[in-house]
Amino acid sequence: MANEKEVVQRDLIILGSGPAGLSAAIYAARANLNPLILTGMSLHGQAATTDTIENYPGFPEGVGGSELGMLFQTQAERFGAEVIMDYATSVDLSQKPIKIESYAKEYQCESLIITTGADPRKLGIPGEKEFTGKGVSYCGTCDGWFFKDKDIVVVGGGDSALEEGLFLTRFANSVTIIHRRDELRAGAILRKRAMEHPKIKFIWDSVVTEIIGNEAVNAVKLKNVKTDEVTTHDTDGIFIFIGHIPNSELFKGQIEMDQAGYIVTNGVMETSIPGVFAAGEITDPHFRQVITSAGMGAAAAIQATHYLENLEAA
Ligand SMILES: Cc1cc2nc3c(=O)[nH]c(=O)nc-3n(C[C@H](O)[C@H](O)[C@H](O)COP(=O)(O)OP(=O)(O)OC[C@H]3O[C@@H](n4cnc5c(N)ncnc54)[C@H](O)[C@@H]3O)c2cc1C
Known about the structure:
Shape: elongated
Order of helices and strands: EHEEEHEEEEEEHEHEHEEEEEEEH
Largest sheet: 7 strands, mixed
Distance between the termini: 40 Å
Number of strands: 19
Helix content: 10-25%
Number of helices: 6
Bound molecules: flavin-adenine dinucleotide
Structural class: alpha/beta
């Protein structure tokens, strides 16, 4: 006979241990719900992969990314949240209790908060992983400040590449936008602003094939896709804006999503399914910050608490 999986039941389960998930956990735990948090493969989420976070309020000197994640977790656990190192492999939202499977267990809950985040699309080239946080960045708002008076490159040709490139001119000495085509995908107004900006230059028809450095990035290797010519371009940093991938595969066909796969929520973090809430980057292709994700997590937990109270009262 096949081994039966252990079944774990809770009123509220939170999928994800990034800023959204752990903020939801703090609020739900303080509402006495004893929430269960499944961490997924990335304990404390994307924020934990960066050295220093300088824009989260309450830390005037900045705070380490993993230290902030640990502080969120400790605060949630203090009020009774249970953080489990496990990963959801399938989810059934079609009935209550909601069922979540992992390799070893089945979890059941009346209310679910989805905070599985979105990952920045990577170039997948040598040096990218090695120099992330040492000159490789996926967020101008987060890291622009570190590149005051530096020469940097931006990879991409869509709206976010140009928006972030224009933002980075506030700090950088020069911003060189590297694009694999000879025209930009971004909208007309952004295109005009970028083309006319005195600090912005373009390298067309080119892809970055390698990121080079010692302690930190000092150059990128480029290949012209039309001529195959390979060149080296000196730079202090590389900002990569080639899109994000929402971690929503598990929920496909079960819940309303937009075309890019972000879970659709209303103003109070409700999804198309009663009792299921979403928060943070899984529902936000726009702000992508620790504080905005944390705020959405708190809001989702407040709504989940009301949902469970109403169930009890019915
Ligand atoms: C290198 C880097 C530096 C950054 N620097 C800053 C900064 O300085 N300031 C700032 O405000 N923002 C910064 N950001 C952005 C910030 O980290 C994100 O906006 C924030 O982490 C999003 O929070 P989230 O909780 O929505 O998702 P995430 O942090 O992406 O967390 C998602 C969570 O879901 C879990 N998960 C995924 N799939 C499953 C599954 N199947 N089962 C269970 N769990 C699952 C993951 O393990 C993870 O714990 C940075 C991002 C990066 C990548």
